[in-house]
Each structure stands twice: as C-alpha cells, then as structure tokens.
Amino acid sequence: MNYYQDKETDTVEAKKWLKEKAAIAEEFLRQLLSQFEAYLRKLCAIIVAKLKKMQNLHKFFPRQSDLFQTSSYHP
After folding, report:
1. Measuring CA to CA, how many Å separate 19 from each of 12, 26, 32, 36?
2. Contact between residue 73 and residue 67 where contact means Cβ atoms under 8 Å apart
C-alpha cells in the first residue's frame, strides 16, 4: 500500500469510529433527557401540590391585608 491508500483507509476507519461514538453519545443524551423530563414532571407536581395547599390555607388563616381591615385588630 502506498501513502494515499493508507490515508484513505485511516479516514474510513476514523469516520466509522466517529459514527459509533456519535451513536453512543446520542443514546446517552436521550436517556439523560428522559431522566431530566421525569425529574421536571415530579418537581412540577410538587410545586402544584404546594400551591394548592397554600390556596387552601387562606380559608383557615386570614391574609395580612384582611387583618388590617378588621376593626377588632389593634396593632
């Protein structure tokens, strides 16, 4: 083999190697994205639950602005 044939073979092998590594990286990123999406869903569910809980709390505890409007409240 001469220099150019060796270089061409190396280029083909390098492209093959890069395609393999790109496929591995792509699969890793897909899995990472899937895990992140699941984490965000859980986080959003927690936030929504806390907001709903806070929304229900005003039934039991008056807001501070309501306290200042009542005549029975004296600072």
Report:
1. 11, 10, 20, 25
2. yes
